[in-house]
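Fold it.
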Amino acid sequence: MISTQALLQPIKIGDLELKNRVWMAPMTRSRAANDENKPFEIHADYYSQRASAGLIITEGSQISEIAVGYINTPGIYSSEQVEGWKKVTKAVHEEGGHIFIQLWHVGRISHPDFHNGELPLAPSAINPVEKSYTSKGFKDTVTPKEMTLEDITQTIEDFKNGAKNAMEAGFDGIEIHSSNGYLLHQFFNATSNTRTDEYGGSIENRAKILFEVIDAIKEVMPENRIGLRLNPSLNGVFGMEADEETIPTFDYIISKLNEYSLAYLHLSEPFTDVSAIPYLESHIAKRYRPMYEGTLVINSSFDQDKGNKVIEDGLADAVAFGKLFISNPDLVERFAENAELAAWDTGTFYTPGEKGFTDFPTLEEAKVG
């Protein structure tokens, strides 16, 4: 029976009752092509089309101007951006959906072009030797500025303000982006954080900023509306190189997260094959399901069958789908009918406008069309 699919069962996170376990993963789409970097009607259409997801997690949204690292990405630090997001949350709620916003600071994955010629901020002055996508195309990253203690304090405050703004904008909660080689992840990794103060050196010191961010956000919103994303086995992406302390660092972080009553912990399986790297973990859900006591969400290259199985096996409580939601706004309904899925178009992932964003038909619309 369709109703027996694990993915289609309801789930409660905090005090929210979600209708299924098919969640929409955060994905950068670069559609905020305006001077204010604010979402507008096209974003309301995009997210409301996908409101049948158990939970929508928005694209990463920068918490300050210094947090920016990509063109046309929305923010959550200005009044104009808050007003733009109000349109999105209203549209999603009118369709019966739930939506969290992902709070984002890219750290060193940026370029002076975004900061009036000033250097981007990072835990340490180490160039990731990557590319930054600016208004003038891809440019080489630079050696960033090592954050002062004042910079760190301000960044924590910016996360807090982003969460406060998110609540004003009508979001059901927030997800802290502490993953995929961006700022908070840069603090965790000993190859990107060579500090010798209280934010560097030991595993506990390198993880300190994350817990200070959580504690700050708790001051402006309920703890059970806070989600968190981690990618323990990321390697060779955005200059992140794993070492023998990488997995022990995430073991420490995830164990300590049990001291909080978060909405969920969102983990990614490895983006690349790490089986030949002795100090990385190939099976993230298997490792961390026994370690984490709260709601666990897993992501990365799942399809319907794999999604159902990981929940049935007790290794996750929900699955976050990315690209499948781009081309299938009614992904939940297609799973329910075991229907064919539409293919996405990589050429329109990051291009402004409706094409490849809001123009994918639902299954019913495709039948009529």
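The chain has a mean pLDDT of 96.
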